[in-house]
Structure formats: structure tokens, C-alpha cells
Fold SURF1-like protein.
Amino acid sequence: MNVRWIATALAVLVLAGVCVQLGRWQFHRLDERKARNDVTRTNLAAPPAPIDQIVGQDGVVGDQHAWRTAVVTGRYDASKQIVLRYRNVNDRPGFEIVTPLTLPDGKAVLVDRGFLARQGAELAPGHIPAVPTGEVTITGRLQRSERGGHTSGGTPDDGTARLINGPDFAKALGLPLYDGYLTIDKQEPANDPALGGFPGPEIDDGPHFFYGLQWFFFALLALGGLVYFSRQEVRGGDSSSEGESSGPARPEVPAGAAD
């Protein structure tokens, strides 16, 4: 075997190793998703409770609180309302309307009041339903703050944002906000019917199991190809050796040439 063949074999082995690691990573993600689904099922079945009893003193809505039903009572601050752009619900593009709700203890929580489907090519909703005046009581689902890596989509700019992020909103709006937000299941007085609701969580295993199998299959395919071509290389080498050892054929002497 020459150097080129050895380099190719090493490259195939590395490729197979990478495929195995990617398969293991997919199965690790599957385990994480199953654990998250268990938490979601538990939270969906839990009875409603005041937000401070669920979240605690630090005011941070974590993964362990997602989809838990919280009850809050307070007053909307419409002057600090934010329009969420580039949102999508059930494959429909549009906007979400987020309004801070000031609670009796002085804290505030972001409330995602609902979804407005985009009409044509509009860049902002043509009409935003007004918030109820006076005190309102909301029963809704807790969600952790949305994060977009190093983007600034969670910082409101001119009354709009792309992500719902409690700490970023708190700095921009000057409010002591919970780190997280609430989507409305029920509101008294009732929420405006023009604001659409949101689908529930997806509680399934996702595609991770089959993706993991695919990566393992690719690894086996690479190793199988290496074995096959290695055998072909060995057979080709053996044939060349046999041809060289036999030597040149002895020329036939025509009859009568020795006379």
C-alpha cells in the first residue's frame, strides 16, 4: 500500500468517527428532549398558582417552570407596550403584542396578549386592540425569556422587538420585570377576540432517534467501503506479484531453426 492509500484510509476512519459522535449527540439530545417533555407534562397538569409562589424570589422563569399555569392580578401599562415583529403562528406570519402588567407588590410581568396575523405586506399591525382599563386577572402559561445568541432582538427599539426577553425589556422600559413572560389562557375582563391565541407545546421525541440511526449508518457505510476497497487493493497487488514472478514467456523456436 502506498502513502496515498494510507492517507485515504485514515481520512475514512476519521469520517466514521465523526459520524459516530454525531449519532451519539443526537441520542443525547433525545434524552434531553424526553426529560423536558416530562417536565412539560407535569407543569401542564399542575394546578394554577400565583406567579411568585411558582418562580420564587429571584423572579426567573426557568426551564423547570415552562408551561406552568400562573395567576396574576394587576394593571396594564399600555404606554410601554411592545410589538413583536417577524412572528409566526401555525405557519402564518404576523405580530405579537406584549404589554407589561404592573402587580400590587410593585413588580411587573410581561404579558403576551396575543397574535395578529399580517395583512398583505404590512410592516406593522394596522390596529392594535386596546388594553382593558382598571384591574385585570390573568390565568396563563409561563415561558422563559427568549434568547437569540449575540443578536439584539430582545432589546425594544422604537416600540418594537423580535424577542421577548425580560432583562432586556426591563432595562429599556425601566420596570422591575420578571425574567420571563406569560401567555394568556383566560383574562377577566376578557381579552379582545381580535388577538389570536397560541398552540400548546409539542410533546414528542422529535427526529433525534432517526437522525442518530442515520449517522451510525453513515459510519458503517464508510467502514464497509474502506474494507471493500482494501480487499480490492490487496487482490490487485497479489495479481501484480504473480505476473512479475512468472517472468517473460520463453519464445517458441520454429521447427527446423536449429538445423
